[in-house]
Amino acid sequence: xRLVIIGAGFAGMYAALSAARLRDIQGASPExxxxxxxxxxxxxxxxxxxxxxxxxxxxxxxxxxxxxIDVVYVQGSAGxxxxxxxxxxxVTAEGAKQTLSYDRxxxxxxxxxxxxxxxxxxxxxFSVDKLxxxxxxxxxxxxxxxxxxxxxxxxxxxxxxxxxxxxxATEMPAxxxxxxxxxxxxxxxxxxxxxxxxxxxxxxxxxxxEDALRKLGVETRLGTGVASLDKSGVTLSSGExxxxxxxxxxxxxxxxxxxxxxxxxxxxxxxLLVDRDLRVPGVAGVFATGDAAKAACDDVGxxxxxxxxxxxxxxxxxxNNAAAELLGVATRPYHQKAYATCLDLxxxxxxxxxxxxxxxxxxxxxxxxxxxQINTVWIYPPRxxxxxxxxxxxxEHVGEV
Length: 401
Description:
Belongs to the NADH dehydrogenase family. Keywords: FAD, Flavoprotein, NAD, Oxidoreductase. It holds the Pfam family Pyr_redox_2. The chain has helices spanning about 10-25, 65-70, 120-125, 130-145, 165-180, 205-215, 310-325, 365-380, 385-390, and strands at about 1-5, 35-40, 45, 60, 70-75, 75-80, 85-90, 95-100, 105, 110-115, 125, 155-160, 185-190, 220, 225-230, 235, 240-245, 245-250, 255, 270-275, 285-290, 295, 340-345, 350-355, 360-365. The protein has 2 domains: about 1-110 and about 255-340 and about 385-390, FAD/NAD(P)-binding domain (3-Layer(bba) Sandwich); about 115-250, FAD/NAD(P)-binding domain, CATH 3.50.50.60. It is built from 9 helices and 25 strands. The model has no long low-confidence stretch (mean pLDDT about 95). By secondary structure, the protein is α/β, with parallel strands linked by helices.
């Protein structure tokens, strides 16, 4: 029997760990149940940190962890999925094709930044969506030092006032000073179509965020969007033009395109609708997890968000349940009633909230220490030691806050 997991992000990594854990508990051998993880590289990109400097350092190797738990790494990208014949066609780095059959499949392909049809976005906008994108932005920022201090050289416009946009914008003043000098007159502007900044963070957090933006000198343009981009900067739907040599797009996410190959219902973000065991209804043998799935967290209407926190726990349940079906044991319904948010605010600290109503618990330096702990310890893979790695993947405890 073979369980195949597509994706080496947080959801895919924990699906592999959890499936291997259940296989170990049930006393099955790797020959009896092969667990294979498919990804272009055996590497976890620490995506929640890509707004930081030195993004090339924000990865973690998975090969040793996978070997320790007897998970087979298959290098390649999933090109097509045939759910009737239960087979995946892979494309290797050299462009060759190979077919991999499965008895159970876990789709953990993550999400991508949504780039709307805005004139100039492809040519002139940077992002922190993928590792290559973040590295390109880092190089661009360092190149600014060699340019004349005019025409918006010292200005950054961030399109999007959600989590990613705020974390990126509040990090920018320090990143710009590191490149241009501590006395540089930098300017950072957040543009968002909502009438308030941090629209999803709630009334308790918003004043803290607004105060942090003022302290950092970050401007906002609310109730308006980016109408077009060119080499001189951005033109807003309000008609205002902002000269800027750096525009960062951070507005909206969609599930990775591979989910469209699964013949099942999807939401407006492209996520596959799944049941409480994270199965894709009507498609035998297929589970979806992380940003590729829309899943209920509880019985009162809350659904998993496109976040690392939800992806890790969803991954653990999906891997466990896919393996459980093959091993003939009971599955565990996914649930995630606890939810916390820790939002980085650059040199102004951070905020930590708990619950779906986002009750504010920590602010400033104390919240910043929690954010640093999350970013540098909690979200990294377990050490490559079999017992510890398997123990880390109990679905009932992964992602607890």
